[in-house]
Amino acid sequence: MDFFVDKPRVAQVASMLHERGILFSVSIRDVDELKCREQGSTITVNVSATERPGQSENQSPCECMNWSTYHGLRTIYAFMDKLAETHPYLCNTFVIGKTCEGRDIKLLKISNGNPDNKGVWLDGGIHAREWVGVSVTTYISNEIVKNFHKMPESVTNKDWYILPVLNPDGYVYTHTTDRMWRKNRAKYGQCMGVDLNRNFSYGWGEAGEDGSSEDPGSIFYRGPKPFSEPETAAVKRAILESKADFKAFLSFHCYGEVIIFPWGYTSEPCPTYVELLEGGTVMARALHAVNGRTYKVGSTKDIMYYSAGTSVDWSYGVANIPYSYMIELPSKQHRFLLPKEQIIPTAKEILCGVIELMQFVDKRCKGTSATSVNSKL
Predict the structure, then answer these.
(1) Does this model's pTM top 0.70?
(2) Is 254 part of any domain?
């Protein structure tokens, strides 16, 4: 586990761990310094509730959008709307729900309108502090739209449903108040927030305290019931009420450099374990070919730990999306504070991996149908 220690107490805590024979290492010696490197300037908290520190008041949000730094919610939503405005034949934006604090949950759809297209779902930012996942999904959106006619058929024959910021309230909170906030901003008693990636119905509450927590004070709090949160309920509606035939579900997280798939709530293998392992390996090879970075591939429980009530278990087990993956982005070195200079290299390698997966999916899905495993609604 990782935990933070105030600088004046580092020696005291290190001595306490040493005396008790608890092995430890210091992974980041100065978190504040890394925060500054991440943004390229000193972070300030006296900002608008919808925008990132440092944006010029003379610039519109969409003019600020690039992948050389991290952006706030207002800029990201303006970017999505601009894509739809300038490419109306390809893009639409939809508000699929409202957060606890009243913010829009905004979805971008990219499609050439072919009724035979299969569906692909991408999301980022389900955990508020994982900024690079938001950057990767917006980068992929931009590349697909701006280069649509140059993309391979495995991309253009899909309807792309992209939710860059699944957790808008939490994401804004990381820009204004607490950079390391993980959950949403729902209030339960004296505690704030639900871990949205423990709030989906499949396997919800299983594996005991190893898979999630019933304690509202825990960062893994699963909520009082499945889909108790407006964010997860919005995802459920958007997928199940859509007419799309979804073949792939990709949720971007950080950190870890792994590609994982169901199950997370049990050590038992999922019905198509080998197929998912092969698809994940195709992605991993493509990623390695770009920057030489190695991603591990396997089931959630085997590669990481028990995670009960995750979006990927639900997308596979209930929504019957056969190629469901959670991709833990870089970096092991910087944890959640990936420097801004690494956004574009990371996004480029992920785009290559996604394209390779689409080609794999097309080859495997011809004349086949998804395995039905929705026994736990």
Answers:
(1) yes
(2) yes
